[in-house]
Amino acid sequence: MKKFKYLVTDTKDLQWGLNVDTVGYEENLPGEDYPTHGHADGFYFNVAKGRILQEYQMLYVKEGGGMFKSRNAGEVELRSGDIFLLFPGEWHSYHPNTNTGWKCYWLGFKGRNMDDRVNADFLSPEHPIYHVGYSSEIIRMLDMALHVADEEAIHSQQVLAGITNYLIGLMYSLECSNQLQQNFVHTDIVNRARQMIRETLEDGTTIQEIAVRLGMSYSNFRKIFKEFTGFSPSMYQQDLKLQRAKDLLATTDMTIKEIAYQLNFESPDYFSSKFRLKTGLKPSEFRGNER
After folding, report:
1. pLDDT (tens digit, 9 = 90+) per residue, 75-117?
2. pTM of the predicted model, to two decimals?
3. In this structure, are 156 and 193 located in the same domain?
4. Are residues 11 and 127 both part of a single domain?
5. Opening angle at CA 176, ends 173 and 180, nearest 5
6. Number of helices and strands in the chain (H, E)
7. Is there a single domain that holds both residue 174 and residue 199?
8. Which helix (H) or strand (E) covers residue 239, if one does?
């Protein structure tokens, strides 16, 4: 899967301080040829030979891993949750791991906003890798950038510049914060787990299955999750389900039985019992009050 857009900018856009000329997302399967074809002239490259761009790029490895090389940083392993920056005039090459592939977003941009940050040593070719970890906010903003680029509405360059500046600031802040946290790996696991639980509320995925996806035993996962959040992953999942049930009761005509089974409760009676314990009301009473 891949989706990307190359954008045209005018002289007025350049005066904004930052303009974006490419936005994209790719999923590369294990063993698949890389780079994939279809890119604009000047962007496709041979992994062995590398390339030099005349712009900045930000790439975020959502899943999987890979390798990165550059003139100033040498060879560095990339892992899930890493952002790596490309700098104008800097030789570089990168690729996903053959065994894992990767899912990767990118933004290409240029402008004095970025030049000023590099000149002030906030960002440098010597430090192109940022270990920010899994971030649903970064993913949300990159998906928004893809949407804005695809629509290409009037003044979309200014919106894309705002998204890019926000992502650069978020990237910088997240890594600084993570460096202060001794348990970065555990923090990242819990953040990823919470997002996975939210995304799978209605498909029957169990907490045990989420632990497996994270490469952990259930007991270790439960211990880490509770240490960081104050409650067990199953209680977190149940609370989210009950929040979702409130929305369905208030905004739809689904029966209580339908809601119970859609949210994978054992039975309508079990759902009603948990709902009343949490809210002090039966589902029917809650719906009556909302209506």
Report:
1. 999 999 999 999 999 999 999 999 999 999 999 999 999 999 9
2. 0.64
3. no
4. yes
5. 135
6. 11, 9
7. no
8. helix 233-251
